[in-house]
Specification:
Structural class: alpha+beta
Length: 495
Amino acid sequence: MVGGRIVSSLLVLAMLSSCSGGDGGSGSGPSASTPTPTPSPTATPTPTAAAGCSLRERQSWAAAQLNEWYLFPETLPASLDPTPYSTLSDYVDGLTATARAQGRDRYFTYVTSISAENAYYASGSSAGLGVRLTADTNARRLFIAEAFEGAPALAAGIDRGTEILAIGTSAANLQSVSSIMAASGTQGLVDALGPDTNGTTRVLSVGDAAGTRTVTLTKTTYDVAPVSTRYGASVINDAGHKVGYINLRTFITPAEGAMRDAFATFRAAGITEVIVDLRYNGGGLLSTAQVLGNLLGGNRSTSDVFAYQTFRPEKASENETDLFAPQAQSISPTKIAFIGMGGTASASELVINAFPPYLHANAALIGTNTYGKPVGQIALDKAACDDRLRVISFALQNAAHNANYFNGLAATMEKTCQAGDDLTHKLGDPQEASIRQSLDYIEGKSCTAIGTTASTASASVHDTAIRFTTADAPVQTLVAPNRPSPAQRAVPGLF
């Protein structure tokens, strides 16, 4: 790694950070060391009770940080009266409104909790049902896109493809999903499911291959495994053709060991063609994204550029050049099929964007267009108030200096193949539509290119909907609240 001082404090997020493109890690600024993450989001200070934590003081602090670090300083207002803004988040949204109108900051700059974010990036800690939700907004239907190990939903037999038909706090007051969406859209679903806190109970009417039934689920704290123990990594034998498959849910520290184990298996099997499934991956740590790049970079030189991080001119001393560093487990791919969709953002897009300069059309985007977040955040902390301000501060470029994918990667990739998200098959199944299309691409078969229109259609002012579609599939929306938690930003659709 060559250049400035701040990479250790950066976290590339997504989503929905948007889904994001490069959220940062922990820290209190570019030169800060990364603090030891807390094991759980507890002991959060009460902002108004701590010295220096009045709303006006917090607003003044946030404005000063933006003026110093924001990537688009010319878009900031010369002054913005904080009086009309009742929350710090609303004030930050007001400061970044011009860049947002230009499509350069779609709520990528935001305020979050230090303790909650540290807990998530250390272990994947989150409280909820343990599912990723996707809605067919046209038909007003709600499905499980993914269920997480060790969480309440999977323990109750709810998994990918299960449809949620109705939601209530008891069997007596179940409301149909269709009526909720008709009245309040996807935010109505968020409200009906209640807060993501330990002990919150919801009754669901669900339907799947086992029939229709009513289940009662109580939200608990669990860790999102970044690589599933059920389908996260495998060697697919496709008519005698061996292809490596890895599904990475999120870029957090625990992913690194799981990825190394998977690639060690690929290397031992002589794998040179691989499917990297990032369809729901909203981003996470830049350092973890680089580990994935290195594991895919066995045939890259240590002088080859993985990514450039470029700050505004007066902060150029912070610029970084990240070089490939092949690992003992690295493979030397001849073809990579990256599965991406509207929930693919931030660190995920960074990894995908890194390979076209070297593999050209042998690195393909399969699925639909991605979210579009070619920028990264730094973490600026006001610790007494438990405030972490994620500020868009740098552009993320590949070796060819491409960071021009605010509308998604489809227009910049040399090869793309359209495919849907097939909820009738499990993730990792060679017959699932996007995996099947990936295998066909690797075999050299023709395909229909992905359209280059932006894949997002926000259902609220905070990108609560990440949409992806194909010509022959319904619009599916990864559901998220107006103010996503750290986990929900990196794992779009998480509840």
